[in-house]
Design a protein that fits this description.
This protein has 19 helices and 22 strands. The chain is of the alpha/beta class. The strands form five sheets. It has a nine-stranded mixed sheet, with helices on both faces. Helix 1 crosses helix 4, helix 2 crosses helix 3 and helix 9 crosses helix 16.
Length: about 625
């Protein structure tokens, strides 16, 4: 037997012995309390017989209800409820047995009620005293005063706050002392949690800080425990904390708390994604697993931000085979190393390849026969695309065409194409090329639906900016902050939709499930709910404040003007696209204008030849004809 098992068995034995001894003692005390000195005069001749019977009954009941299994260290109201049930059942069974044996002769009926109360105290008292001693919550005069703890103000008076306060109070090594609570629920004002006052809402935080300062309890940190705090609410708190010169942090979600009271709750700094304040959508993970599990999956652009996250999430759903296609040797090396470390039993195949190479794509499909294809490879950076028109069109349009046609030829079950909000009313080559790729895949989808033996479903998923993706604004701002500024913003009115990469990919997989199940809507485009757009200027200001710096003082902000192809705001839907809700709240459908496939193929052939000749002006002319809403900026 291991030391751990021996220790656990010994603890259970001690707890069981304690409860049985308390049962015997409670009976004697109950009789004595009722009869007093008359007990000595043998007024109750069945004293010891009754004690033995009651102790035996209690022992059987306690063992049956596993009373000894509850940890005294974490004694709770649930444990108290179990004790009440066990004691009540023991008294009832004992009374029934005594009635059968001797009609309760010589035993005052009140002894049963007294015994019930005494045994409750003898069983419950030691448990809660033990917990109080371990938690250091008895507040005896001889208790050493806690020193060197950081006073903090909590935002949110919910379960997470309660657990954090409890953890802080019972552990002397906890670095924090909660001196006040703030909650926007007006019914909470004036209440307390573990003797900590709830002062009011977030709008009066400066007043609360002053009040606590007068008491010698000025918070040195503001910690957010409210999981449901909105993006605007979070940004407001950043401004308030910045004005007070107090650092802002947040608790992990309650579901992330480690089990065990002795574990420390790790406070983390506010991240940029916290400023979005997006509510988490409920996902059908079972259906997502069924989509992937046991299937051969191919992902293009697997070394990029979206492609990389796709590989991670898809790998966790146990595909029979995962094929990742990536043009960058370094990106391929990075993602392969990560996947082999995280999923050692995954059948992984890494292929260096360019989606523009039609013959290579054909060879890949012939060799690996993918059933599901996720196409994330693209030229996505707007300024680079503007100066490399032919390369962008060849990758975004003809790379997508190569993948789509290979899917049909090799009878893949579905192709999921990752698109962008820049494809809506595009003002740049990147957006127009992605819109043309959308059109081609949707035209193929409609054609496939007409064929008797069609097999491939085409699912296009459109969403906005992903936080932290390569070349996006957040890493750029971080680099500029690290250099001491300035931060460059194109225009003070520029807005963008933002989403975390994890959420984006989760919704891509969810949309793929919806697309698989929608037999009559293959030509629709799935559009992710991006929430409310955010000003780039506001994002820059918040990031400066989160770094503990002052905008325009420590870090300057410089306006550079719109770059070629950029627009002030992005759109998720075209005016001519009908918006249809799906069964999932985070995903909508857009029905794009239909284009005849044969006509489109003819135009694409001309565009392909012109791009290979590197004729930018002619390529732009054809692109404008194929995407009429494309308005190229000067």
């Amino acid at each position: 037997m291991s030391i751990y098992k021996f220790d656990r068995s010994f603890r259970n034995f001690i707890a069981t012995a304690h409860d049985i001894i308390m049962a015997a003692l409670s009976f004697l005390l109950a009789v004595y309390i009722r009869l007093g000195d008359e007990l000595i005069a043998d007024s109750f001749p069945y004293l010891f017989t009754g004690m033995i019977i009651f102790t035996a009954v209690s022992a059987i009941v306690f063992l049956y209800m596993r009373l000894y299994r509850g940890s005294w260290r974490y004694a709770s109201m649930r444990d108290l409820s179990t004790i009440v049930k066990a004691v009540t059942l023991s008294i009832l069974i004992f009374a029934l047995l005594m009635f059968v044996f001797n009609r309760l002769s010589g035993l005052p009926r009140s002894v049963l009620f007294i015994n019930w109360m005494v045994l409750l105290m003898l069983l419950g008292g030691p448990r809660f005293i033990y917990r109080a001693l371990k938690d250091h919550t008895l507040n005896w005069n001889f208790t050493l005063k806690e020193v060197n703890k950081i006073p903090v103000l909590l935002i949110g008076a919910g379960d997470a706050a309660e657990q954090f306060i409890r953890n802080s109070q019972r552990n002397f090594d906890s670095p924090y002392e909660v001196v006040g609570l703030v909650d926007d629920d007006p019914t909470q004002k004036g209440r307390t949690i573990h003797r900590v006052n709830i002062y009011g809402d977030t709008q009066i935080i400066p007043t609360i800080i002053k009040k606590l300062s007068r008491k010698g309890q000025k918070p040195q940190k503001i910690i957010i425990s409210d999981e449901d705090l909105s993006g605007p609410g979070m940004r407001n708190l950043v401004d308030i904390a910045d004005g007070l010169g107090i650092p802002l942090a947040r608790l992990p979600k309650l579901s992330e708390f480690k089990q065990g009271i002795s574990e420390k709750i790790n406070i983390r700094p506010i991240a940029v994604e916290d400023l979005l304040g997006r509510s988490q959508h409920v996902l059908d993970r079972k259906a997502m697993r069924e989509l992937v599990e046991g299937k051969s999956v191919l992902i293009t652009g697997a070394g990029g931000t979206i492609g990389g996250e796709l590989t991670r999430q898809i790998s966790s759903y146990n595909p029979s085979k995962l094929v990742i296609v990536e043009l960058s040797e370094f990106n391929s090396y990075q993602i392969e190393r990560e996947l082999r470390a995280s999923f050692p039993f995954l059948a992984l195949n890494c292929v260096l390849g360019d989606v523009r190479d039609e013959s290579h794509i054909e060879n890949i499909f012939t060799k690996y026969k993918p059933e599901l294809v996720f196409h994330a490879a693209a030229v996505k950076h707007v300024p680079i695309a503007e100066y490399n028109i032919e390369e962008t069109i060849l990758t975004n349009v003809f790379g997508s065409r190569n993948i789509a046609e290979a899917c049909i030829k090799h009878k893949a079950q579905a192709m999921v194409m990752i698109s962008t909000d820049k494809a809506v009313n595009p003002t740049n080559v990147m957006g127009a090329s992605k819109r043309l790729a959308e059109s081609y895949c949707q035209a193929l989808g409609r054609q496939e639906k007409k064929e008797a033996d069609h097999t491939t479903k085409f699912i296009t998923v459109r969403f906005g900016n992903v936080l932290g993706s390569t070349g996006s604004v957040v890493p750029l701002f971080n680099e500029q902050l690290a250099r001491g500024g300035p931060i460059t913003v194109t225009d003070p009115e520029m807005t963008r939709y933002f989403m975390t990469v994890r959420e984006a990919v989760e919704l891509v997989l969810q949309a793929s499930v919806l697309g698989r199940d929608m037999q009559d809507k293959q030509e629709y485009i799935f559009v992710l709910d991006m929430g409310q757009p955010m000003k780039i200027l506001d994002l820059a200001l918040q990031m400066i404040k989160l770094a503990g710096l002052k905008p325009y003082s420590d870090i300057d902000i410089v306006y550079t003007g719109l770059r070629p192809g950029e627009k002030l705001y992005e759109e998720l839907f075209h005016l001519s696209e009908n918006i249809v809700e799906t069964s999932h709240k985070g995903i909508f459908l857009a029905s794009p204008r239909q284009i005849d496939l044969e006509t489109l193929k003819t135009s694409l052939s001309s565009l392909h030849e012109i791009c290979k000749q590197r004729s930018s002006e002619n390529a732009l002319d054809i692109l404008k004809k194929l995407v009429p809403e494309f308005t190229a900026r000067a």
